[in-house]
Amino acid sequence: MDPKLLAIKYYITPIKPLPDGATATTQTEKTISLVIGLLTVFGVLYFAFHIIFAGYSYMAAEGDKAKLEESRKKLTQSILGLTIIVIAMGLASLLASLLGLDNIFDLNQIFTNMGL
To answer: Do the beta carbons of residue 45 and residue 53 sit within 8 Å?
Structure first.
C-alpha cells in the first residue's frame, strides 16, 4: 500500500504591521472617510448630470405638456437628490466632529490615498 498525504499545505501571509504613528482607529477612520468621500463625489456628479439632462429635456419638450411635466419631475427629483446629499454630508460632518474624528471629508487626503 502506497502511503499518501491526506492534507493540503496552505501558505498564509502574515498581517503587516501598521505604519509608524498609525493605529487601527486611524486606519478605520481613513477607510470610512474614503468610502464616504467617494460616494459623495459620485452622488454629486450623478445628480449634476441629471439636472443638466433634465434641463435639456425641458428645453427640447417644444411645448408638449406631457414632456414638460416629465422633465419637470426629473428636474425636481434631481434637485431633491442633490439636496439630500448636501444635508447628509452636513449631518455626517456634525456627527464626526461630535465623535472627535478629524478631517473625515478631506478630499485631498482621499485622492492621495487613492494614488491620484
So the answer is: no
pLDDT of residue 101: 65
Q: CA 41, CA 35: separation in Å to the nearest integer? A: 10
Which residue is listed with cell 502506497? 2
Q: How far apart are alpha carbons 41 and 53 in whole angstroms?
A: 18
Q: How far is CA 74 from the centre of its chain?
A: 23
Residue 58, CA distances (Å) to 47, 55, 78, 81 in order: 16, 5, 13, 18
Question: Smallest Cα–Cα separation from 49: which of 88, 19, 82?
Answer: 82
pLDDT, one tens digit per residue, over 22-79 is: 565 667 777 777 787 788 889 999 999 999 999 999 899 888 899 999 999 999 999 9
State the Cα–Cα distance between residues 30 and 102, nearest whole angstrom.
10
